[in-house]
């Protein structure tokens, strides 16, 4: 779709299209036979008044960060949730907006299942995990957590717009937006609705193997086409990492049956090499022989933020709706915290440059 002086010009438009926002859109002689004629003739003209309302809401938000992924199941929502927890722990005012309409997992990951949205004279009130961490999700509006959201694009776009213009966040340092995987209607909408208010950029989450990176390349391409800065790529589930003492040990018999030898192995280690039990064992889960996310970032000219291992303690924190940084049990928390600190320092430095 091209941009003209009178609005966008659809790719399948007739020659000499007057533009979708022109007063003659759908009515001029050049519109005859165009597949968009009826839509153009009946569409409202002029700037969208809702965009003005969104701009007013977003005027109190300093930083807006999108969290994207090329495909589902790579841990995007986990990263969004833990990023929000970490920023709140740094004493920032944080909002987490879940626009993954068909798969809203943020209420679960923030420990907010069963909460309802409340309205005040200022608008919809976010659900607060802590005084400086508010959350909004379609998940709060479903009558039952197992309820499927079966909506076409326009209705999805409508609820995203409503979240942006009607939710009263107050003063925020960071608004983290957890988007659905891929490059769908929701992505185009969030960019169009927020672009005038300034989007700091996008964090893209992937796993190391090529089947994920293929789609991440498309996500990077999408960001470049719509003018969204890629803040960096996080390689999630980058190997399995957990204390050796947390592993189970089994023998697989010739018939395929499993024999649990954990107790015997642990007894041997305690007796003959007790110091080994304090080690963390690591193993590759996905094939990263192609160079993983780091190589892809180098090829596509975008920052590589780092690797986060697959850690059962991080999975447990997400299941229980809590921060993985609240104790020292999660091995993934250290690399994740370094990534977040790098991100924050970069954003703060850029903001200082803008002010200067």
TrEMBL record:
<keyword id="KW-0004">4Fe-4S</keyword>
<dbReference type="InterPro" id="IPR028601">
    <property type="entry name" value="NUBP1/Nbp35"/>
</dbReference>
<keyword id="KW-0408">Iron</keyword>
<keyword id="KW-0547">Nucleotide-binding</keyword>
<dbReference type="GO" id="GO:0051539">
    <property type="term" value="F:4 iron, 4 sulfur cluster binding"/>
</dbReference>
<dbReference type="InterPro" id="IPR033756">
    <property type="entry name" value="YlxH/NBP35"/>
</dbReference>
<feature type="binding site">
    <location>
        <position position="17"/>
    </location>
    <ligand>
        <name>[4Fe-4S] cluster</name>
    </ligand>
</feature>
<dbReference type="GO" id="GO:0140663">
    <property type="term" value="F:ATP-dependent FeS chaperone activity"/>
</dbReference>
<dbReference type="InterPro" id="IPR019591">
    <property type="entry name" value="Mrp/NBP35_ATP-bd"/>
</dbReference>
<dbReference type="GO" id="GO:0005829">
    <property type="term" value="C:cytosol"/>
</dbReference>
<dbReference type="Pfam" id="PF10609">
    <property type="entry name" value="ParA"/>
</dbReference>
<keyword id="KW-0067">ATP-binding</keyword>
<comment type="subunit">
    <text>Homodimer and homotetramer. Predominantly homodimeric.</text>
</comment>
<feature type="binding site">
    <location>
        <begin position="70"/>
        <end position="77"/>
    </location>
    <ligand>
        <name>ATP</name>
    </ligand>
</feature>
<dbReference type="GO" id="GO:0046872">
    <property type="term" value="F:metal ion binding"/>
</dbReference>
<comment type="similarity">
    <text>Belongs to the Mrp/NBP35 ATP-binding proteins family. NUBP1/NBP35 subfamily.</text>
</comment>
<dbReference type="InterPro" id="IPR027417">
    <property type="entry name" value="P-loop_NTPase"/>
</dbReference>
<keyword id="KW-0963">Cytoplasm</keyword>
<keyword id="KW-0479">Metal-binding</keyword>
<feature type="binding site">
    <location>
        <position position="40"/>
    </location>
    <ligand>
        <name>[4Fe-4S] cluster</name>
    </ligand>
</feature>
<comment type="function">
    <text>Component of the cytosolic iron-sulfur (Fe-S) protein assembly (CIA) machinery. Required for maturation of extramitochondrial Fe-S proteins. Functions as Fe-S scaffold, mediating the de novo assembly of an Fe-S cluster and its transfer to target apoproteins. Essential for embryo development.</text>
</comment>
<feature type="region of interest" description="Disordered">
    <location>
        <begin position="1"/>
        <end position="29"/>
    </location>
</feature>
<protein>
    <recommendedName>
        <fullName>Cytosolic Fe-S cluster assembly factor NBP35</fullName>
    </recommendedName>
</protein>
<dbReference type="GO" id="GO:0005524">
    <property type="term" value="F:ATP binding"/>
</dbReference>
<dbReference type="GO" id="GO:0016226">
    <property type="term" value="P:iron-sulfur cluster assembly"/>
</dbReference>
<dbReference type="InterPro" id="IPR000808">
    <property type="entry name" value="Mrp-like_CS"/>
</dbReference>
<keyword id="KW-0411">Iron-sulfur</keyword>
<feature type="binding site">
    <location>
        <position position="34"/>
    </location>
    <ligand>
        <name>[4Fe-4S] cluster</name>
    </ligand>
</feature>
<feature type="binding site">
    <location>
        <position position="31"/>
    </location>
    <ligand>
        <name>[4Fe-4S] cluster</name>
    </ligand>
</feature>
């Amino acid at each position: 779709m091209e941009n003209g002086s009178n609005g966008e010009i659809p790719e399948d438009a007739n020659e000499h299209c007057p533009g979708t926002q022109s007063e003659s859109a759908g009515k001029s002689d050049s519109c005859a036979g165009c597949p968009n004629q009826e839509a153009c003739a009946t569409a409202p003209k002029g700037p969208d008044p809702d965009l003005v309302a969104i701009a007013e809401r977003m005027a109190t938000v300093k930083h807006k960060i999108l969290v994207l992924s090329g495909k589902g199941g790579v841990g995007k929502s986990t990263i969004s949730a833990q990023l929000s927890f970490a920023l709140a722990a740094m004493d920032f005012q944080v909002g987490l907006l879940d626009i993954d309409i068909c798969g809203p997992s943020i209420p679960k990951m923030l420990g907010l299942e069963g909460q309802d949205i409340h309205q005040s004279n200022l608008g919809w009130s976010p659900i607060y995990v802590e005084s400086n961490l508010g959350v909004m999700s379609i998940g709060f509006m479903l009558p039952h957590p197992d309820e499927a959201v079966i909506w076409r694009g326009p209705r999805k776009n409508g609820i995203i717009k409503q979240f942006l213009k009607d939710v009263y966040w107050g003063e925020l340092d960071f608004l983290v937006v957890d988007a659905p995987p891929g490059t769908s209607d929701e992505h185009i909408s969030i960019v169009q609705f927020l672009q005038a208010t300034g989007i700091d950029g996008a964090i893209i989450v992937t796993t190391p193997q090529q089947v994920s990176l293929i789609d991440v390349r498309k996500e990077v391409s999408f960001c470049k086409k719509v003018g969204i800065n890629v803040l960096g790529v996080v390689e999630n589930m980058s190997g399995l990492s957990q204390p050796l003492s947390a592993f189970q040990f089994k023998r697989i018999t010739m018939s395929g049956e499993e024999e649990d030898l954990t107790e015997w192995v642990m007894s041997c280690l305690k007796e003959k090499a007790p110091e080994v039990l304090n080690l963390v064992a690591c193993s590759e889960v996905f094939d990263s022989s192609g160079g993983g996310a780091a190589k892809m970032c180098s090829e596509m000219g975008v920052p590589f933020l780092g690797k986060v291992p697959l850690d059962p303690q991080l999975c447990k924190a997400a299941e229980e709706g809590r921060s993985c940084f609240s104790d020292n049990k999660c091995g993934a928390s250290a690399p994740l915290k370094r990534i977040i600190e790098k991100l924050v320092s970069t954003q703060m430095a850029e903001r200082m440059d803008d002010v200067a």
